[in-house]
């Protein structure tokens, strides 16, 4: 395990879901929600994306917030290749959705699927009555953080050490860093 993985996760917030753009999938891809029998497909995407073995039943289906329409897939000719969950976690307020388990099969990197599946999950949250969203991520997930910033998530600066971590991330992204006021 690297030092980066030992750091506490970073939080990002999107203040409103009312201004989300329309979803436009890359040509040739389809969006759908979880269907019975997709458990292994979700597990495969997560393993390829993160290098983790996660059991769908324990991690997702057993959660009190689980509904099939909250687990989204982008498919290539019917085969799921990207996933995200439009979630709710007890530590966030009732009107706050939680963008959870965003993963893309690395064979499909660079096609905009991470952005699309994340946006689809945000739109689902809005349909579920959520007014804002939050996510947690890691410092080393630079491509994912780039997507979250494009989706108007803002870093949460909760202490000087987190602000320094965000400065380093912005440097890696070649973006100007604006300190929280």
UniProtKB/TrEMBL annotation:
Q: Which residues form the N-acetyltransferase domain?
A: 29-178
Q: Which domain of life is it from?
A: Bacteria
Instruction: Identify the Pfam families for this entry.
Output: Acetyltransf_1
Signal peptide positions (record): none
InterPro entries of this UniProt entry?
Acyl_CoA_acyltransferase, GNAT_dom
Q: What is this protein called?
A: GNAT family N-acetyltransferase
